[in-house]
Design goal:
The structure is a single chain. Helix content is 46%, strand content 0%. It starts with 9 loop residues before the first helix and ends in a 43-residue tail after the last helix.
Length: 219
């Protein structure tokens, strides 16, 4: 599955990308195998083959497979943040009692170094994904001091992104770090399913209330 991420066939590598989400990070779960997978993903980021395209659907963000892999790192990192731990504790499941989460937390500095290499990338999609990946990783105590350095990039790059998801991430991060987020504009309607930043054609679901639904609701 992991080798297939770099396959020459776009269909093959797209399926492999789907599997690291659906098998190794299903419904945002961190499994024992998720940790070595994250190390592998971080290790292949410099490979030129990660600049290849992948299949997209209407839920995908723009970008090549390097962008997608950085986004995957961001997703697994989100599950071991201080906020995630606080939520888990409220339900009686502190992350410290779950070995895969403990292991994921231990490799955050390494994942941060891998993502940091692309925060100035010439490809904007890669650049945005790299900064997005760095944000949750900096909850690691060893990385807290790096927040002040990254904050201007969060504001300048994510805060002006064409994608509302990145703009929201910028606002949330800057506010959490006690940095200035004034003037940044997030999603005006957070309950809008059809992303206003996507083309009208991508909002087929319920696009015409009078015509009924073309697909099942996404929940």
């Amino acid at each position: 599955m992991l080798v297939a991420l770099l396959d020459a066939d776009q269909v093959v590598r797209s399926k492999a990308l789907g599997k690291i989400h659906g098998v190794l990070h299903h419904q945002n779960t961190i499994y024992e195998a998720t940790v070595p997978t994250a190390l592998y993903v971080a290790a292949i980021l410099p490979d030129p083959r990660t600049m290849r395209a992948v299949d997209k659907d209407r839920h995908s963000l723009p970008g090549n497979i390097r962008t997608e892999l950085l986004a995957w790192i961001a997703s697994v990192a989100n599950e071991v943040t201080d906020a995630a731990d606080a939520t888990s504790r409220r339900y009686g499941f502190p992350l410290e009692d779950y070995p895969p989460a403990v292991s994921m937390r231990e490799i955050r500095p390494l994942l941060y170094s891998a993502a940091l290499a692309y925060v100035h990338d010439t490809d904007r999609h890669v650049r945005e994904a790299a900064i997005t990946a760095c944000v949750p990783l900096m909850d690691d105590p060893k990385l807290l001091s790096h927040r002040a350095t990254l904050a201007p990039l969060v504001r300048r790059v994510l805060g002006t992104s064409e994608l509302w998801q990145h703009r929201e991430r910028a606002i949330d991060a800057l506010d959490a770090w006690s940095e200035d987020s004034s003037g940044l504009e997030g999603q005006r309607n957070p309950f809008l399913y059809c992303d206003s930043d996507l083309s009208p054609a991508s909002c087929r679901w319920g696009a015409d209330p009078g015509a009924g639904w073309s697909e099942e609701p996404p929940f």
